[in-house]
Amino acid sequence: MSSFKKFSAAKKLGVGLLGTLAVGGLGVGVAALSQPVAASELTLHPPKYPWDHSGPFSALDHASIRRGYQVYKNVCAACHSMDYLCYRNLVGVSHTEDEAKAEAAEIMVLDGPDDDGNMFERPGKLADRFPKPYANDEAARSANNGALPPDLSYIVNARHGGEDYLFALLTGYVDPPPAGVSLRDGLHFQPYFPGQAIGMAQALYNEIIEYEDGTEASMSQLAKDVSVFMRWACEPEHDTRKRMLIKAIMFFSVAMAASYYYKKHKWSVLKARKLAYKPR
Asked: Whole-angstrom Cα distance, residue 71 to residue 211?
């Protein structure tokens, strides 16, 4: 205390502020530690997976896109729509034109009116969008205990974590839920979903479908393929954008070399010249 009295006013003020901050920080820490933490308040963040297309010059796996479309068609399309995707978008990406036409012809589309003013059904065409599983949102909620299944056209960009989140969501179900967690009827424990209670039951299981190309249809393979398909669906220009990046790098490399040559051997001569005026 005797040494403290010898401090100047500025030093006393600084010591006082440090003491106040220390006591305040200790109080905040004690208050935070004293709060009970419920399991329902914890939401896991999806890990980072080594996707083949994650590199700056890496393209999407188009074979995986085709398999992912098969997963969506046979599993996800029962509840989820893709309103912004047409069958023509598959041409040259995962299917040939004839294959895409065959896929579109499997659905019936309400069209019309005809010459008599009547609506009629016709086989689908390349210009038709993917079919909706429900007539409207109210029908979708009624069939899913009040929950509205989201449209999957842009689901990867609409969720934090992108395809990492989608893969973790599809493969991260916990049944039965951990001790201390109670869920309402119709909900399922999903640690990666905000709130950890999701209305969608686990949809993917081993060998739930059979791939056309003979790939083993394990649950992780199904989740990986449909995640890649969803990434392409929300970003169909993915490969084109990266090809443009390569072209831009090549162009600017040549342009920079030409600029350096001009600066070093042409402009430097003009810049370093000296104008001398002879007196009369």
From this structure: 9
Per domain, the residue ranges of the chain are: 39-81+132-236, 86-128
Per-residue pLDDT of the chain (280 residues; tens, 9 = 90+): 555 455 566 665 665 667 676 666 666 555 555 544 444 455 689 999 999 999 999 999 999 999 999 999 999 999 999 999 999 999 999 999 999 999 999 999 999 888 889 999 999 999 999 999 999 999 999 999 889 999 999 999 999 999 999 999 999 999 888 888 888 888 999 999 998 999 999 999 999 999 999 999 999 999 999 999 999 999 999 999 999 999 999 999 999 999 988 888 878 777 777 777 777 7
- Is the pTM above the cut of 0.70? yes
Second-level CATH architecture of 39-81+132-236: Orthogonal Bundle (1.10)
